[in-house]
Amino acid sequence: MHTYIALLRAVNLGGRGRVAMADLRDLVTAAGHGEVATYLQSGNVVFTSDRADPEAVAADLRRRLAGELGVDTPVMVRTGAEITGIAARHPFQEGQSDHTKLHVAFLAAEPDAGHAAQLTVPDGAPEELHLAGRELYLHYPAGAGRSKVTAAYLEKRLGVSLTARNWKTVIALAGLARQRA
Predict the structure, then answer these.
(1) What pLDDT does 17 receive?
(2) What is the pLDDT of residue 157?
(3) CATH number for the domain formed by residue range(s) 2-79
(4) What is the mean pLDDT of each run of 10 residues along the chain (181 residues)?
(5) What's the pLDDT at 15?
(6) CB atoms closer than 10 angstroms to residue 47
(7) Topology of 85-177 in CATH?
(8) Are strands 102-107 and 135-139 parallel, antiparallel or unpaired?
(9) Long-range contacts of 67-73 (CB under 8 A, 24+ apart)
(10) In the chain, what are the domain boundaries?
(11) What is residue 131's predicted lDDT score, i.e. its pLDDT?
């Protein structure tokens, strides 16, 4: 049995992509997965499955979301082991007492070298970035709300879809994954 975390991009933000978490749990359960739990209202689902291919799970959930709930959005899936590893090693965590300034962007795929080389912060911006495979660790010293380092900015440079979560959410999802291990 495998533990997975599905991260939906841009649901329940500003009235777009409305998905009730009860409907999301029902959809994941109907897809054949078990121990389904959602976290917050932003499209975070933790579940177990006998399916061994996380990419196939992501594609199936995206298809079902579009077909059954009318929401076509990228779905990034990570294993329980991946999410607990991510939660154990934010490179900007050391000495950072305000965890609201830490985020992780989950990428749909690892960017190619050409796109990865384009990953920089705008001139004079205080943000710090660290790309590690399909994750981008972010530090927003002045907060993420007014930053120029937005999802659209990052997607343009990396050439892949992504969805970001704050550090508190990443830690909580890792805890939920450990409960299912």
Answers:
(1) 78
(2) 96
(3) 3.30.70.1280
(4) 95 76 96 96 94 97 96 96 95 86 97 95 94 97 93 96 96 95 78
(5) 65
(6) 27
(7) Alpha-Beta Plaits (3.30.70)
(8) antiparallel
(9) 68/27, 69/19, 69/23, 69/24, 69/27, 71/8, 71/11, 71/17, 71/18, 71/19, 73/8, 73/9, 73/10, 73/11, 73/17, 73/43
(10) 2-79, 85-177
(11) 98
Residue in the structure block whose two tokens are 């499209």: 43
Q: Which two tokens stand for residue 57?
A: 């799970």
8 Å CB contact between 25 and 37: yes
| Region label for 124, one of left (φ > 0), alpha (ψ between -120 and 50) or beta (otherwise) | left
The CA distances from residue 156 to 8, 62, 129, 173, in Å, are 19, 22, 15, 27
Given this model, what pLDDT does residue 99 score?
Answer: 85
Residue type, 45: V
Report the length, in residues, of the chain. Answer: 181
As a whole number of angstroms, the distance between CA 20 and CA 93 comes to: 32
Q: Give the pair of three-digit tokens for residue 165.
A: 């979560």
User: What's the token pair of residue 163?
Assistant: 């969805």
pLDDT at 61: 97
pLDDT number for residue 142:
93
Beta-carbon neighbour count of residue 137 at 10 Å?
21
pLDDT of residue 14: 66
- By CB atoms closer than 10 A (0-12, 13-18, 19+), residue 117 is exposed
